Amino acid sequence: MDATPLLEVENLSVTFRTPGGEVTPVPGVSLRVGAGERVALVGESGCGKSVTALSLTALPPTDRARRGGAIRFAGRDLLGDPKALRAARRGGIAYVFQDPMASLNPVLRVRDQIAEALPAGLPRAARRARILDLLGDVGLPDPVRAADAFPCELSGGQCQRVMLAMALAADPRLLVADEPTTALDVTTQRRILGVMDGLARQRGMAVLLITHNLGIVANYMQRLYVMYAGRIVESGPVRDVLSAPHHPYTRGLLAAVPSLRLDKPRLQDIPGTVPPPGRFPAGCAFAPRCPRAVPACATAVPPLVEAGGRALRCLNP
User: Fold this and answer.
1) Cβ distance 78 to 85 under 8 Å?
2) Cα(119)–Cα(300) distance, integer angstroms
3) How many beta carbons lie within 10 A of that of residue 153, not counting itself?
4) pLDDT above 70 for 265
5) How does DSSP classify residue 91?
6) How far apart are CA 221 and CA 199, in angstroms?
7) What local confidence, expressed as pLDDT, does residue 1 receive?
8) Residue ranges of domains in the chain, CATH in brackets
9) DSSP annotation string for 162-185
10) Contact assessment for residue 168 and residue 94, using Cβ atoms and an 8 Å cutoff
11) For residues 12 and 29, is the Cβ–Cβ distance under 8 A?
């Protein structure tokens, strides 16, 4: 990875004001994404992955939250510099979300929605050609038909390809994909991920993938961050983390992955659930569910210790 990352997040905290008081679903996240690098952020639902992703450019609802720490993109401060934030939103950072039917406008044709993401002032003929090129790049077999269609006339996989085309319209340097294949069948998932990976390599575009699917991570990502209760608990190269996980939470996630091997024990789960924001334990948030917890885990938040390209937050790994 480059000495100066494309995206650098340091001790990011995100706090919302609610009728019951302030709630902090993300108390402190640090991560980096290098130029052209493919990085995954994994964890159970409720761990704060999506809030972290949205807060990078203050997308709703994080635009109403208090954000602390530091977010730097291409060397510019996205928390303290409004111009840098606007530039990142215009094309530096693009998003693909998990439910395309909820993200696309049902009363606008595909061509009109992609046109909104293109640079202003583009001549009509050039705009039409660019839209068709984008739809072809994401693997739609009939770009003309897709461009003239309404979202309801396309399948879920086709709509997700449209979302990817919209994200690529401004030639972003970083693509944030938040559970982009959750609503799709397995075959379509593989096709979408293959297209996304191929385009990222072709364009030299970095990818931050938000997911809980470790199979996807193993096949497409280079580095991995494991997140629990708003904090990173383990990180490192994908192959190293998945082959030799150190944190009990990472081990629990891997044990829960289904397998067709007959010699593997039956499917295991992690007892308990992720604590809701505002009810995180005083010490390690995973301690109440951890089989290796020691008394100190209940009172002390383990520091994130980096060594040999890996990082770990655990008092008793």
Assistant:
1) yes
2) 50
3) 13
4) no
5) I
6) 14
7) 46
8) 7-312 (3.40.50.300)
9) HHHHHHHTT--SEEEEESTTTTS-
10) yes
11) yes
